[in-house]
Amino acid sequence: MIIRAQIEVLESTRWLTAVQVMALANFSTVGPIEQLSRWKQEARIFSIKPAGSAELFPAYGFDAPNGFRPIKELAEVITILAARKDGWGLAYWFASVNGFLGGRLPQEVLAVLPGEVVAAAKDETLGTTHG
Fold first, then answer.
1. pTM of the full predicted structure?
2. Which of 11, 40, 63, 129 is most exposed by smallest CB count within 10 Å?
3. Helix, strand, or coil (residue 45)
């Protein structure tokens, strides 16, 4: 069941390797992995690591029009949910239908309605069940 859920998450959106993020963000070849590590430490982005695969970052977490940097509100969501969810938990949450968001997936609306996604994350901590 876990493997099936992981496959669904992987197929639900575009996932990027560190090398792909570096290219899209136009990082120089010096220190880009350290930048991604810093963003993760600062809870500005999250990643998952499928068995036998490289670490992957969700494309929806980056603001493409603004230099492919992490979407600011993603850090708020990660901080709100961090006590309850690791990287996979966050990935499942973002790929799940959310009643607070009118049945939409958080990953679908993060870029256009980031405040609503933050509010949905806060609602999640209140124990409301969506799905």
1. 0.90
2. 129
3. coil
Question: Are the CB atoms for 118 and 80 separated by under 8 Å?
Answer: yes
d(CA 46, CA 77) in angstroms, rounded, equals 11
CA distance 127 to 131: 13
pLDDT at 131 over 60: no
Largest Cα–Cα distance of the chain, in whole Å? Answer: 44
Q: What separation in angstroms does the CA of 77 have from each of 1, 22, 35, 44?
A: 26, 23, 20, 9
Contacts by 60-65, CB closer than 8 A, 24 or more apart: 60/13, 60/14, 60/94, 60/107, 60/108, 60/110, 60/111, 61/110, 62/21, 62/24, 62/25, 63/111, 64/24
Q: What percent of the chain has pLDDT over 70?
A: 92
The token pair that represents 94 in the structure block: 């973002």
In sequence order, which residues have a C-beta less than 8 Å from that of residue 56 and are 6 or more positions away? 10, 15, 16, 17, 47, 48, 49, 50
